[in-house]
Specification:
Layout lengths: L1 E6 L1 E3 L19 E3 L1 H16 L3 E8 L4 H10 L3 E6 L6 H14 L5 E5 L10 H9 L3 E11 L2 E8 L2 E8 L2 E5 L11 H7 L4 E5 H4 L30 H14 L4
Parallel strand pairs: 1-4, 1-6, 4-5, 5-11, 6-10, 7-10
Antiparallel strand pairs: 2-3, 7-8, 8-9
Helix pairs in contact: 2-5, 3-4
């Protein structure tokens, strides 16, 4: 079974700070593999371990984005395709170039994404990439089974759980509750540097279908949170009643 997993090297949102104008300070910000993408890598590797096949990690980025690729290789992926974007792209362009990189990797049975990146969390790239590849797409997968040329998934949707099936090849996005990502050992990290990594440019992937123009982000603001800092004193019963009264006054219950 040939699996491709797509990962993003994202800003570490837990370490971001805001300036006096309320804008995130991206200059010099720490970066890492998107948290949710580690679940996608884990699920791809688990599938490979339960069956025969390979896992190819594909990532589009620039700068130090290869760090996330090497982490995925250390977690158990077999080879990588690193797409050097040179600059940030919108979701449509990102999905287009990812789809071309997936095709470049060779015949594929399953393409695995996370539910969304931990920095922007648009949730658009996975279904868009599936559309470019003309593959059936199953999103927000919390459990899956593969067999007899089909994939059966339990989906975690807002309205409740749902079970869906699709024939392979297919594309899926997984939610974080599907697994607990492994942490590579020092030996696995060292071995990852010996695994094949092909770096390609956007020009080498572009054809007549490449999207023109794009969507740009005009502004990003940090959401300010103010707390009332109300302290309820008394016995547990008294404090509970005061809390309920306060919530009712705010219209929250």
């Amino acid at each position: 079974m040939n699996i491709v997993v797509c990962v993003k090297h994202a800003v570490d949102e837990s370490e971001l700070k805001a300036d006096s104008a309320g804008k995130p300070q991206l200059q010099g910000a720490l970066s890492k593999m998107s948290n949710f993408d580690r679940n996608a890598v884990e699920e791809a590797v688990k599938l490979k371990e339960s069956r025969t096949g390979t896992v190819t990690v594909v990532s589009l980025g620039s700068g130090d984005w290869k760090k996330s690729i090497k982490e995925a290789l250390a977690m158990g992926c077999d080879r990588a395709i690193a797409v050097n974007s040179g600059s940030a792209l919108d979701a449509l362009s990102t999905s287009y170039y990812l789809s071309r990189a997936v095709r470049r990797s060779g015949p594929v049975d399953l393409v695995v994404f996370s539910e969304g990146s931990s920095d922007t969390y648009q949730g658009l790239v996975a279904p868009m990439t599936a559309e470019w590849l003309k593959l059936p797409f199953l999103g927000y997968v919390r459990k899956l089974e593969v067999g007899d040329g089909r994939i059966r998934c339990e989906l975690a949707l807002e309205e409740g759980e749902r079970v869906a099936e699709a024939s392979l090849p297919a594309a899926i996005s997984v939610v974080s509750e599907i697994n607990s990502p492994r942490y590579p050992t020092l030996l696995q990290v060292m071995q990852a540097s010996k695994k094949p990594m092909e770096e390609v440019s956007l020009d080498s992937l572009r054809d007549e279908e490449a999207p023109r123009g794009g969507v740009s982000v005009a502004e990003v603001q940090v959401v300010s949170v103010s707390r009332k800092r109300i302290l309820f004193e008394g016995t547990p019963e008294e404090s509970s009643r005061m809390l309920v009264d306060a919530l009712k006054k705010e219209g929250l219950v």
